[in-house]
Amino acid sequence: MLLFGGGTQEGVEQRSEGLQGGFLPGSAGPWKGAGWGGAGHPSPRGRPRPLCLPAAAARLSSFNDDDKIIGGYECQPHSQPWQVFLTYGNGYRWCGGSLINNRWVISAAHCYLSPLWPGKPLHLQVEKVIPHPQYDSGVRFNNDIMLIKLAHPVTFNSYVQPINLSPTCPKAGDSCRVSGWGNLLIYGVKYADTLQCLNLPILSTNVCQKCYPSRISVNMFCAGYLQGGKDSCQGDSGGPLVCNGELAGIVSWGSGCALENKPGVYTTVCNYKEWIEEVLANN
User: Fold this and answer.
1) Where do the Peptidase S1 domain residues begin and end (predicted)?
2) Is 237 a catalytic residue?
3) Catalytic, out of 110, 132, 166, 179
4) Among residues 260, 254, 258, 228, which one has the least CA distance to residue 35?
5) Are strands 73-74 and 83-88 parallel, antiparallel or unpaired?
6) β-pair type (196-201, 73-74)
7) What are the tens digits of pLDDT across the range 30-56?
8) What is the 3-state secondary structure (H, E, C) of 27-64?
9) Is 144 a catalytic residue?
10) Closest by CA position to 233, among listed 255, 218, 261
11) What is the pLDDT of residues 100-147, one digit of tens each?
């Protein structure tokens, strides 16, 4: 099943994981090739940051072109029925999202690219887009969360279902799953034709802060493997990180893709429960 977004302002595309479909490469606005971060958006510029593992840490493993989401696997058909991605124009797609009820999608605020949203209507229009009012689009990407209201309710079926928001914040050691149609390669560009999944652990706040000194706010957490080789990447931004069947994180940012000591950084959904409830109630 394909639901395409469009309209005069913006669009959302939702698609069943069992279908084939390309994720178009390219850059837009400030996002340029290698300038994208490991979790799907711009990485910090300048010299590499210090490693957060000791020198004896395991070296980056070698992965070939068949690796998924980077080091993951093809999702079971219809296993992620809340998965959404954003599109504009004639179908250019650049971010993910999650259906949280029949009218609302949650994504990352940095996916709001107002100059790029105009496009020809396809199937499913969007009524409004609401980035967090305190989103920091500068260096830190704090409050990287956005709500999207659909113009018409989605009809639920066995392939299209919402996901519940996690009432608690993820803890270090929790095993979770990230999914998306983003880049599959650590170096180079190869976009997924089918939805990719990756199981990965939540890292402690202490480790996360060592990996990204002075960059991690209380609204962020790290997930992934410090040895590298497995990560979300360009094109996965805004997509879901699911713990115990509930939405716990939103793909936000990182330095490179699947690099040693540079795990993906995610928006902590539990911190925004009141804001989400307020937006849904007032819109």
Assistant:
1) 69-281
2) yes
3) 110
4) 254
5) unpaired
6) antiparallel
7) 222 222 233 433 342 122 223 343 322
8) CECCECHHHECCCCCECCCCCCCCCCCCCCCCCCCCCC
9) yes
10) 255
11) 999 999 999 998 864 434 333 334 678 899 999 999 887 789 999 999
State whether residue 207 is helix, strand or coil. Answer: helix
Maximum separation of any 2 CA atoms in the chain, in Å: 55
Amino acid, res. 180: G
Query: Domain 2-21+81-162+272-282: which topology?
Result: Thrombin, subunit H (2.40.10)
Q: Give dist(CA 71, CA 57) in Å, integer.
A: 19
**174 contacts: CB under 8 Å, gap ≥ 6:** 201, 202, 243, 244, 248
DSSP 155: P
Helix/strand/coil for 272: helix
Please tell me which residue in 41, 67, 144, 252 is annotated as part of the active site: 144
pTM: 0.78
Residue 192 tokens read as: 């997924």
- b/e sequence 145-171, b meaning 16+ C-beta within 10 Å: bbbbbbeeebeeeeebebbebbeebbe
Of these residues, 166, 237, 252, 255, which one is catalytic? Answer: 237
